[in-house]
Write a structure and sequence with these properties.
The complex is a heterodimer of chains A (421) and B (362).
Chain A (H helix, E strand, L loop, with lengths): L1 H16 L11 E11 L5 E8 L14 E2 L2 E8 L2 H8 L6 E3 L5 E5 H5 L3 H10 L8 E5 L3 H7 L8 H8 L2 H4 L8 H9 L6 E7 L4 H4 L26 E10 L2 E6 L1 H11 L4 E7 L7 E17 L6 E15 L11 H25 L9 H5 L5 H7 L1 H4 L4 E12 L13 H4 L1
Helix pairs in contact in A: 4-8
Chain B lengths: L8 H17 L2 H9 L3 H25 L5 H9 L1 H33 L6 H18 L1 H25 L17 H10 L9 H4 L7 H29 L2 H4 L5 H7 L11 H30 L9 H14 L3 H33 L6
């Protein structure tokens, strides 16, 4: 009897290993790489998805509209995200899967409506969605951004997107925000959400100088879609969107994003261009990184909360146009103090902007304030998000030049007197 | 007299620790975060200390009746019929817990992994995984627990440690959560989380003496307390307190966000493996304990013919729960009132034995 039972069980196990109700063959699915949401015309939402076709680009596969570079981009007007996916299936033989979705992009128009929490909650609830999916706000149509997101090098769109997501650590010009962190910030009592800002670049900024820089030398004062360039992929990531709860309230440019990253402890490295302190017509380029993580101290004993922010940075000299020997002991502090002054001024200006213009603690100072309260009830009664604009925030920047690159000294350029004059 | 065989201290501890920590893989961290906010990690330590106190009473009771297991002690202390009824109540609670844990696991699998598979189909395979060790006896269950113990602990700890970059110590504040009174209150009430240590009193004749019983019980509570508290500490650091109560399967949410470079991702595969192994061990020992309690109460020497009827009862209770909300209510009921069964019944036995002056080997 037992022998028969064992044989029966073996058969059951062998058969069940071949698959059951939820079996999914890898090539039965269409893997969505990106999801974009715009305001719909025919229905509530205009949903755009980009999915992998597993075809090599440049072959014969480009005959279907929307197909290029191994992906297909399709757009539909629908009542909700998930119904939209079902509606897409009317023209596709495979079931859509979001197991490998890399980013979610929502248009600025939608973000400004103040309903971000609705979409985020819908995404978080669905088990296929991973919370480390990136979160973007598109200044133009989300669908356009997805259509223009193409690999600049090689064929692999997924790798291209994944590498683009490492940009926050390479340049600091966009923040690192994924769906999970955005959802946490939406519901947090200590801070407000931010998101990376993206757009398509029509390449007109290079010719028209729409935003002519006034005394700016940093290069980071631009915002996604307005970088003066031509050629390459049109999709661009630069700056960040600021939210108050589920509503987008403002945009910050690349420089401001770097300062945000410095204050929050997320900054890793970036090239900074500043005016030469001795010859203001010339510039100095510095390769900057953290010396130590920032220190934030909070005092809530007075009427207004007081916050002391100390950012410690170090860097290398990359370029000095003036040929002044800042590498020397005597001159190095001049450059260090100049960078500290500029960074502090910009930092103070950004903090004032967050307090007075959009009244949102995006730096998560609240988490340091929360440490002063023993219980959740007392903390919630303090109502930090409403108090933030009244807080007195002092910043201190400490910068040290460590190295001067492959040149230890700048020798003077020799030229004839005629040219010098 | 049921021939249960002998098990060593390592296997017995492994069995109890796995059964206790299974809850951390399911929805319990979410419920605790809902009640006590940021204080869940030390609320669990309070629960463990309360459970150690409860275990102390069980130890003194067992010590008064050398060579007797809990069922026989209750019958001696309270009388044959009342003792039998209290024993059956304890057995019923363990069976109910087996059904709840199975259903919780099934619902979690349905939400996360198998949305189209019918729950009864998953339960059939899960139940069969428990059915055979129960058929083969306590030695088999404990050997399996001993074999998987390090694997389960390694799996859990590696997931929690790999997630270190996701943690923010600031999320532990406000440190007292919703207040010390609430934390201590919930800590005491939820001592049932460690109540499985009572199973040792049912298996006393398979252990190697009273000295081992005390040591195994205290080690089990201490180790599982440290593991659960550490898991809750990690989970609290993972997200801000308003979001902690959102996640249906908290530790799975942590595991899903672990990313190392572009290659080392999707660590939840480890989680599901560990999760299923520990649940299978927990369900097997719950079922075994229930069936042997029943056998001892009705004085049947061979418990094996009872496995199928109990398996059907367990299956039916598990399937009787209509939806996830009802399941959560029942799980909460079980956590809040579980101590009455797990520690209350032995305590009644202890008090009666003292009052009536009954002691000895019978």
């Amino acid at each position: 009897m037992l022998k028969l039972l064992k044989i029966f069980l073996c058969i059951v196990i062998i058969l069940s290993c071949a698959g059951c109700f939820d079996k999914k063959e890898v090539d039965d699915l269409a893997y969505i790489v990106a999801i974009g949401v715009d305001k719909g015309e025919v229905d509530r939402l205009r949903l755009t998805i980009q999915y992998a076709t597993f075809k090599q680009s440049g072959g014969e596969g480009g005959s279907i509209e929307g197909e290029s570079d191994g992906t297909m981009v399709v757009t539909i007007d629908c009542p909700s995200l998930y119904t939209g996916l079902d509606m897409f299936s009317t023209s596709t033989s495979r079931r859509f899967s979001m197991l490998h979705t890399k980013y979610f992009v929502v248009s600025k128009e939608m973000a400004r409506q103040g309903e971000m929490d609705r979409y985020i909650n819908a995404l978080i609830r669905f088990s296929e969605i991973r919370r480390n999916m990136f979160m973007f706000v598109s200044r133009g149509k989300a669908g356009d951004f997805i259509s223009e997101t193409k690999p600049a090098l090689g064929d692999d769109i997924i790798k291209s997107i994944e590498l683009a997501m490492e940009q926050p650590y390479r340049t600091g010009l966009i923040p690192y925000v994924n769906l999970g962190r955005f959802n946490e910030a939406l519901k947090s009592t200590t801070h407000q959400p931010v998101s990376a800002l993206v757009s398509t670049n029509d390449f007109k900024s290079l010719k028209e100088a729409r935003h002519k820089p006034q005394g700016q030398v940093s290069g980071g004062h631009h915002i996604a879609g307005e970088v003066p360039r031509t050629g390459g992929v049109k999709a661009e990531l630069l700056g960040m969107a600021v939210f108050d709860g589920g509503k987008m309230v403002d945009e910050l440019n690349g420089d401001e994003t770097r300062l945000y990253m410095m204050i929050t402890g997320a900054f890793r490295r970036g090239f900074f261009t500043i005016r030469d302190p001795e010859k203001p017509d010339d510039i100095v380029v510095l390769d900057v990184r953290y010396k130590r993580k920032p220190t934030i101290r909070v005092d809530i004993s007075g009427d207004k909360p007081r916050i002391e922010v100390q950012v410690r940075l170090e860097g290398n000299i990359v370029s000095t146009q003036s040929k002044i020997n800042y590498e020397s002991d005597g001159l190095q502090p001049i450059l260090e103090r100049a960078f500290e002054r500029q960074t502090k001024r910009q930092m103070d200006s950004l903090i004032t902007k967050t307090q007075q213009t959009f009244k949102a603690d995006i730096f998560n100072f609240g988490k340091y304030v929360a440490r002063k309260f023993p219980t959740v009830q007392q903390w919630e009664k303090y109502n930090w998000l409403d108090r933030y604009p009244q807080a007195v925030i002092n910043t201190k920047v400490d910068f040290t030049i460590r190295r001067s690159g492959m040149m230890l000294e700048t020798a003077p350029t020799q030229q004839t007197e005629e040219i010098s004059e | 007299m049921i021939k249960e065989g002998k098990i060593g201290p390592y296997e017995a501890s492994g069995l109890i620790i796995i059964t206790i920590i299974t809850k951390v893989f399911l929805s319990s961290p979410r419920a605790l975060a809902d009640y006590v906010g940021t204080a869940s990690w030390y609320t669990s330590i309070i629960s463990a200390l309360t459970a150690a106190l409860g275990f102390g009473f069980i130890y003194f009771l067992i010590k008064r009746f050398p060579g007797k297991d809990l069922v026989h002690i209750l019958q001696l202390a309270l009388g044959r019929l009342p003792g039998g009824i209290f024993s059956l109540a304890l057995g019923g609670y363990l069976l109910f817990n087996a059904a709840l844990i199975s259903r919780e696991l099934i619902e979690a699998l349905k939400i996360f992994q198998y949305p189209l598979t019918p729950p009864d189909f998953i339960l059939l395979f899960l139940g069969l995984g428990a059915f055979f060790p129960v058929y083969l006896g306590l030695e088999s269950i404990s050997r399996v627990a001993g074999l998987w113990f390090y694997l389960i602990i390694f799996g859990l700890l590696s997931l929690l440690l790999l997630a270190i970059p996701l943690y923010d110590v600031s999320n532990l504040f406000p440190i007292l959560g919703y207040g010390i009174k609430r934390s201590v209150g919930h800590g005491i009430v939820r001592s049932s989380a460690y109540g499985e240590v009572v199973i040792l009193a049912l298996l006393i004749n398979s252990l190697q003496g009273h000295g081992h019983f005390k040591r195994i019980g205290l080690y089990s509570i201490a180790i599982s307390g440290a593991l659960i508290s550490f898991s809750l500490l990690c989970y609290t650091m993972f997200e801000n307190y308003p979001v902690l109560k959102e996640n249906t399967i908290p530790i799975l949410s942590v595991a899903r966000e672990i990313v190392y470079g572009r290659f080392f991702t999707r660590f939840e595969a480890v989680y599901i493996f560990v999760w299923t192994l520990s649940s299978a061990v927990a369900i097997a020992i719950y079922l075994y304990s229930t069936i042997t309690i029943f056998s001892k109460v009705i004085n049947v020497d061979d418990y094996r013919p009872l496995i199928l009827p109990f398996f059907i009862t367990y299956y039916s209770i598990s399937m009787f729960i209509p939806d996830f909300s009802s399941l959560m209510l029942l799980v909460e009921w079980s956590r809040e009132y579980g101590s009455l069964f797990l520690f209350g019944i032995p305590l009644i036995g202890f008090i009666f034995s003292l009052v009536r002056g009954i002691k000895g080997g019978g």
